[in-house]
Structures are given as structure tokens and as C-alpha cells.
Amino acid sequence: MNAMVHGAAADLRASTGKLLHRRKKAQEMLDTSNTTFHRLVNEGKLKIVHQGRSSYVTDESLRAYVASLVQEAA
Fold this sequence. Notes:
Layout: E1 20-22, H1 23-30, H2 34-42, E2 48-51, E3 54-58, H3 59-73
Antiparallel strand pairs: 1-3, 2-3
């Protein structure tokens, strides 16, 4: 990752401009396995929404999850 992480939400990578990410893309962004990804969803750490038959992860939940990891590491 090119960006340095120093603490608050402003320290996260710049937004992609998307509000929703397909499950596979979100999983790639977090670099997690299927098992870990589904555990995060089941634990409520990632928010899934549906549009028609497609499932998406909210950008807000991705950022909140990463911010929580940064806080834990501090």
C-alpha cells in the first residue's frame, strides 16, 4: 500500500468514488479468504446490501472495518 496510515479516517486510501462494491472486489480489497470474508459479514463487521439479485458491500462498512483495525493496532 502506498499510503501511510496514521490514525483517523482521513488516513485511509482515497475513495474510489463508489458507494457499493461487489463481494469479490471487496474481498480483493481486504485481501481476505472466502471464509474470513463471510465471517466478517456474519459478525456484522461488513454490511451487505442487495440490488436485484446482486450483493454488494458498502464502502462505508469497508472503511469502518479498516479504521477499526488501525485503532486496534495503535
